[in-house]
Specification:
It is built from 19 helices and 14 strands. It is an alpha/beta fold. The protein has a 6-stranded mixed beta sheet with strand order 4-5-13-10-11-12. A 5-stranded parallel beta sheet has the order 9-6-7-8-14, with helices on both faces. The radius of gyration is 20 Å and the shape is globular.
């Protein structure tokens, strides 16, 4: 299996090379040169999530140096549950993806990527430099997954003042081989800096760069696995496809679900639930593609005005009419997020984070006839304890804090201010370019 750039200006690479590079040299994102095909019967009935991930990802790593280790990698990455839980009398279920080390869905992909890259770095070479732009949950998940991995260093860029206090704690509490940069700008500025770094000649010459954002193939495929596992469970229980409403920002999680459907998993509709950053829903409604500055909202991890993975979505569906038929989108503003958190706690006893509330709101708006056509699942992307200052006043009680988050809140923090210019990032990274690698 080989991978090409969405922009067509770079040579094809192997699975491992795509993971190590993160972004293609021409600035594009890696996609398969050909797509594997899978069917429900290819997955053993009763298989665990790591086993399903192994079966799903194996064709994507066929012939690669990582292929033999893939079972161990998926066991490392997916060693916590992703339960599908009915929501009272609401007529849908919720896929809970917040039971990992940092209580967010990004733990799956970050751990897969860390376990993979650790196996690809031989001893004695200069450190691998992981750059990641974080609008909230990404940075914490990546930092946790790569913390103290030998031979790997991490630079997390997050928008100063535009993440929740709990998210900032998780971004900045690591030290050792993890540096946190508080960028004086938006998430789009952070993402722009990371992309610019990958094509900067000075940085490419001096550093071995890779990315842990959802632009990296190693983040997407493990996320496809839990969508696949959910779809298989619904198919075997009900004999019909699962349809998903997915909180969406940079489109990584949604694209993972789309890829799972594309290779043959029994998945029906896919609906993108966006906050007030409506670039994608506007485009899907027929307006010209127009990236824009992001808007700060309660669902801060989705505050993305120029989502990177749209390139992969357009590569999969080059005809706009086909893209419109493949996925739909809706917009949920902050007022609706607040109302949905309050209403669903009162009606079902569920406590949503602001991101999950966007999916719950889209689900609540859906006409009954559309709901009846499939087994609907909303995706809970983060634990509400990460947003206590928003959620608790709305529901009138305390949000229980998972033990994993409580431990992180006890750690000291450190962050470095960074101007939103490539020169500033280049200076910061090259200042420690040739020092020792990560501690063991």
């Amino acid at each position: 299996m080989q991978y090409r750039s969405t922009r067509g200006g770079s040579p094809a690479v192997t699975f491992s090379e795509a993971l190590l590079a993160g972004l293609a040299p021409d600035g594009g994102l890696y996609v398969p040169t050909e797509w594997p095909r899978l069917a429900p019967e290819d997955f053993v009935s009763g298989a665990s999530l790591p086993e399903i991930a192994h079966t799903l990802i194996s064709p994507f790593a066929a012939g690669d140096v990582l292929a033999a280790a893939l079972g161990d990698i998926t066991a490392d990455a997916c060693n916590f549950p992703a339960p599908l839980v009915p929501v009272g009398e609401a007529g849908y279920s919720v896929l809970e993806l917040f039971h990992g080390p940092t209580a967010a869905f990004k733990d799956f992909g970050a751990r897969f990527l860390a376990a993979s890259l650790a196996r690809l770095r031989p001893a004695g070479v200069r450190p691998l430099e992981i750059l990641v732009a974080a609008s909230g949950d990404t940075g914490g998940a990546v930092a946790a997954a790569f913390h103290r991995r030998p031979g790997i260093r991490v630079a997390v860029l997050f928008p100063e003042g535009l993440v929740s206090p709990a998210q900032e704690q998780q971004l900045t509490c690591w030290g050792d081989n993890v540096r946190a940069f508080a960028v004086q700008g938006s998430f789009d500025d952070c993402q722009r800096l990371v992309k610019a770094a990958f094509v900067d000649p000075a940085l490419r010459r001096e550093l071995d760069l890779s990315s842990a954002n959802s632009i990296n193939l190693g983040r997407l495929l493990p996320q496809a696995a839990y969508h696949a596992a959910t779809a298989l469970a619904v198919w075997r229980r009900e004999g019909r496809p699962a349809s998903f409403v997915i909180p969406s920002g940079n489109l990584g999680n949604a694209l993972a679900c789309i890829w799972a459907r594309h290779v043959g998993l029994p998945i029906g509709e896919i609906v993108l639930a966006h906050n007030a950053n409506r670039t994608v829903p506007d485009y899907l409604s027929g307006q010209p593609w127009q990236p824009r500055r992001s808007i700060a909202t309660l669902a801060s991890a989705m505050d993305v005005g120029d989502p990177s993975n749209m390139e992969r979505l357009q590569a999969l569906y080059p005809q706009f009419a086909t893209l419109q038929a493949a996925v739909t989108g809706d917009v949920v503003d902050d007022a609706a997020i607040r109302r949905r958190i309050t209403a669903d706690h009162a009606a079902y006893g569920r406590i949503w984070c602001p991101h999950t509330a966007t999916a719950a709101e889209v689900m609540a708006r859906m006409p009954a006839a559309r709901k009846a056509g499939s087994a609907w699942v909303i995706v809970a992307t983060a634990h509400p304890a990460k947003f206590r200052e928003i959620v608790e006043p709305l529901i009138g009680c305390a949000v229980p804090i998972p033990a994993s988050l409580a431990r992180l809140h006890e750690r000291p923090t450190s962050k470095e201010p960074l101007a939103p210019q490539l020169d500033a990032l280049r200076r910061a990274l090259l200042a420690t370019a040739h020092t020792a690698g990560a501690p063991t």
